[in-house]
Design goal:
Elements (H helix, E strand, L loop, with lengths): L1 H14 L6 H8 L25 H8 L4 E5 L5 E4 L1 H6 L9 H4 L3 H13 L3 E7 L5 E10 L11 E8 L1 H36 L6 H33 L8 E3 H18 L3 E6 L5 E3 L2 H19 L4 E11 L2 E10 L21 H6 L6 H11 L3 E7 L3 E9 L6
Parallel strand pairs: 7-9
Antiparallel strand pairs: 1-2, 1-5, 3-4, 4-5, 6-8, 9-10, 10-12, 11-12
The structure holds adenosine-5'-diphosphate.
The site of adenosine-5'-diphosphate (ADP) has 22 residues, from helix 10 and helix 12.
Length: 402
């Protein structure tokens, strides 16, 4: 995207690189004339009258989300756009570019363009105040008098790659995590098969014991692949908003019934608080059921020690209009606050061993978040150590006027 955008904008700016008459610029520089009012407000930070670019060019470049800095042959700043001012507080007309961006990679690229007259690219990352990644393109630019002397100048575009890099990191982490999660049960399966083929070949007791363990590992792999498939199916439809009308009261009732056995086995009382009315939303019934099942299952698994789970569904008013609020509250040990913002990340678990022991995959809440997003809803988590957690899903209510 960057590569397509930069040349396009640069070409357009080049076409608009119309200079004001030399005498007027010189007069303003010497302080004998007022800046040309016809030039309009300066688009970027520098005063319009001192800019080598026409007002149109400045306005065009000011729409760029990338920082754009025109520099002289000596690498001093001649003009910069709005994004540059936001990205580099220290950028000043007439001061060296290296003061605005103290980056060796960029300085080297500028030197190279000066020496060869050919465009260059530079990439770097910065750690302070937060980790960020940038890519700059430096291109030669021929200006008309008076700015042509002692130039030709250069134009530097700096694109912030941080969001892109973070997404790439997340994708890499996801593949690494998924492979790791599959490899662990696979390794134990292989180990047990080898034992049964070798030393324990004739040992009926070990064989029975191992077959049980192998079954558990195979189940674990199945749960993981089912969750991965479910996640990828939901992601594929992320931008398709459901149009069927679903009664959430029905969905919540079904989810509670489906979870009764699991709750009974864990000795947890499952309570249901439902308003006596329909709660229509635009939704996919299976996906909404999956959301409630995942939340109730988690409440039983991680908050079941409180002995009670309260599931509720009701209308609510928010700033963005009427919603249906579906809540699952447990009275268990709660979640330490530093973990709460990360719970919906794939494979994020507060305690990996506990999650494994309770047949977790670390994908349940990621699936919930994706489904809720697809339904234009919001998921909020409130938790207090020692008191318990409440997971609430808010979905836009279908009203009669809608
Ligand atoms: P898992 O498959 O491990 O259950 P989830 O994505 O569903 O994965 O949940 C991620 C983690 O969030 C869990 O491993 C657990 O540590 C924590 N968690 C989820 N729900 C609760 C809850 N109700 N109480 C305490 N911790 C919870």
């Amino acid at each position: 995207m960057v590569y397509e955008f930069v040349p396009l904008l640069a070409a357009a700016a080049g076409a608009l690189l119309v200079l004001r008459p030399q005498s007027a610029v010189a007069a303003v520089r010497e302080g004998v004339a007022e800046p040309d009012p016809a030039a309009g407000p300066a688009g970027g930070a520098p005063a319009a009258a001192q800019s080598p670019l026409s007002v149109d060019a400045q306005q065009l470049l000011d729409t760029s989300p990338d920082a754009c800095v025109v520099i002289s042959q000596e690498a001093t700043v001649v003009w910069f756009n709005r994004a540059a001012r936001e990205q580099m507080g220290a950028v000043r007309i007439g001061s060296p570019m290296a003061f605005a961006r103290r980056v060796p990679e960029l300085v080297r690229a500028i030197d190279k363009v000066r020496a060869t007259g050919r465009p260059e690219r530079a990439r770097w990352s910065e750690k302070v105040p937060t980790r960020r990644w940038y890519e700059a393109t430096v291109s030669p630019l021929t200006l008309s008098p008076p700015f042509a002397e002692p130039f030709p100048a250069m134009v530097v575009y700096i694109h912030d790659l941080s969001d892109q890099q973070r997404l790439e990191r997340m994708r890499e982490d996801f593949v690494a995590n998924a492979s790791h999660e599959l490899r662990t049960p696979l390794a134990s399966l292989t180990g047990m098969i080898e034992t049964l083929q070798g030393p324990a070949r004739e040992d009926a007791k070990t064989r029975d014991q191992f077959l049980g363990l192998m079954r558990e590992q195979a189940d674990r792999m199945k749960r993981l692949t089912d969750s991965l498939l479910s996640l990828s199916r939901i992601e594929l439809r992320a931008h398709v908003h459901p149009t069927d009308v679903v009664d959430c009261a029905e969905t919540v009732r079904s989810a509670v019934e489906m979870s009764r056995n699991v709750a009974d086995e864990a000795d947890v009382r499952l309570e249901l608080a439902l308003a006596d009315e329909t709660l229509p939303v635009h939704g996919d019934p299976d996906e909404l059921l999956q959301v409630m099942n995942n939340l109730i299952e988690n409440a039983v698994k991680y908050g079941g020690d409180g002995g009670r789970i309260l599931v509720s569904a009701r209308r609510d008013e928010t700033m963005s209009g009427p919603v249906v609020a579906l809540a699952v509250q447990d009275f268990g040990k709660g979640i330490p606050p530093e973990h709460v913002p990360r719970l919906t990340e794939r494979f994020y678990r507060v305690d990996i061993e506990e999650s494994r022991a309770r047949r977790g995959t670390g994908l349940g809440l990621a699936i919930v978040k994706h489904i809720v997003n697809r339904h234009r809803g919001r998921l909020t988590v409130r938790s207090t150590i020692g008191t318990g957690s409440t997971f609430t899903v808010r979905l836009p209510l279908v009203t009669e006027e809608a």
